[in-house]
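User: Sequence for non-reducing end alpha-L-arabinofuranosidase below. Tokens please.
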Amino acid sequence: TTIRVDARPGAGRPISRDLFGAFFEDINYAADGGLYAELVQNRSFEYTAEDAPGWHSLTGWDAVELGGGRGELRTETADPLHPANPHYAVVEVTNPGEGVGLLNRGFDGIPVEAGASYDLSLFARRPEGEPTSLVVRLTGFCGTYAEVRLDGLKDTWTHHEAVLTATATDPEARLLVLATAPGTVHLDLISLFPQHTFRGRHNGLRADLAQTIADLEPKFLRFPGGCVAHGLGLGNVYRWKDTVGPLETRRQQPNLWGYHQSAGLGYFEYFQFCEDIGAKPLPVVAAGVCCQNTPGGQQGVPMGEMPAYVQDVLDLVEYANGPADSPWGAQRSAAGHPEPFGLEYLGVGNEDEITPAFRERFEMIRTALADRHPDISIIGTAGPDPAGADFREGWEFARKLDLAVVDEHAYLSPRWFLQNTTRYDTYDRGGPRVYLGEWASKGDTLLNALAEATYMNALERNGDIVALASYAPLLARSGHTQWTVDLVHFDNNDVRLTPSYHVQRMHSTHHGDEYLPHTVTGAPATTPPPDPLRGGGVRLSTVDTRAEYRGLQVTSGGSDYVLEVQARKTGGEEGFVVGFGAVDTPDHYIWSLGGWHNQSLTLQRVCDGIAEDVDRVPGPIETGRWYDI
Ligand code: AHR
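Assistant: Structure tokens for non-reducing end alpha-L-arabinofuranosidase:
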């Protein structure tokens, strides 16, 4: 094989310095119970049934009565610690015995190590004069690992802190808070952090997980999503101002992935983490609309409230970059960071449907940003499906507004990635650049890692037009995932890296700065990727050879989804065959179909940009069967 490289000056193309970064979303318990090092679950008693069915303000807590103790545990909301944090625990002790109180088991247990120290803090109030102290213990099945007494309880909310040093290693320890005298005590924000956090930060991050992300050497870090950024309903939009300042003042809310967001890992912590790992921050704010998957569909912030919403976005830039004596720069400074964080990129919107409501609000945000902060690169959004209307319209809209960058996503089969390595070769170099903001090949075999590596080579080759790329999702807590495939799996004690992680790391830590054109001659023939049509699909009897058969539309629960379709001529009596199923392995093939069980399929034909339905296969759709259209 001979490779000829054209290294003459000017022959090459510059590769984006920020090409490979990381995507962080609070999905799969990536934040609370994940990267955020807090060990107590539901520390503020703010869990509700809106987070998950059956959850309530005492979820995660058990009432405890030791050695003949008698009392009651409940939550109340009158005169709370802060209006943003309305619930608190009430322990009413009628007979103290050896202690009455409450116990927390953390996220699948509180992992403690012998000799390690833990920062305990809580707010307490005693409305009746008694008790005046509390006992806090780290315990396990076999006894007490650490104990401390907190004195000086007052009739107003007071903050108490102590250090607990464990005498044993236990992956499933519990935290016990006890009153040992009769009376009533109110408790809130009961927190336990390992002293060993990433870079020793207060309110910090789990050291091993943060290091795993740091080892990727991401050039940027996207946060807080994903769908979490635009939320399920207007009330669930991620509002950055609710996530900064003292912990007790942060507004918590349901996580649309089916659990809770404590906001302990908020915008200050995200910015600080970016700085700690040398990654440029890439926040994504909602484009004034919530996720279109909200029951009832996409809703826009009422126009009367849009000026305030736009101001929030401008204030975010000031929070990140403003001088320490500006109103929001002062808040950053008060949190311990007088220097600016150096924000360059701001994503507006995530996979949004390109509706009139979206367009109008996006333009308001974009105009204000362009006027006040012209040096910020605004990243627009294209829908989740590269063959879908929102994708095309998102790009058209971005071109019309002359945006710097567009965020496009691709969760597709390894085969798709192998077949689309030339995708960006023909992208318009005169328009917005690409941020491949979420992508992963579906499946968890070595083939996936190889397909991704091949695709990343293509991204690098097109590093002049592809400005940024980040695999998604990043973290997944074992037993608590809502999405597959994920880059890194973890539990309380272990972090498990996937082959895809190593591919990301290899490219990120060794990426070039210039692409030099080259030719390859005499290379051995390559074997085509495996046939994805194993055991089932759709057979077309008549085929219009001018058309592209690219949409296999699945109607499920009233919504339409378009699966990947491979159309190819197989000859003989089969004519053209359209395979459905997004991935190549039999297992995932079954999964892909299983998800649409009992639903109907519609095949679309696209010719000269006009799509029309070819035919519909009524359900139930079964795995491994051929359907004739
Ligand atoms: O990465 C998981 C989800 O995939 C993101 O939240 C969303 O943007 C995409 O659909």
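The radius of gyration is 27 Å.
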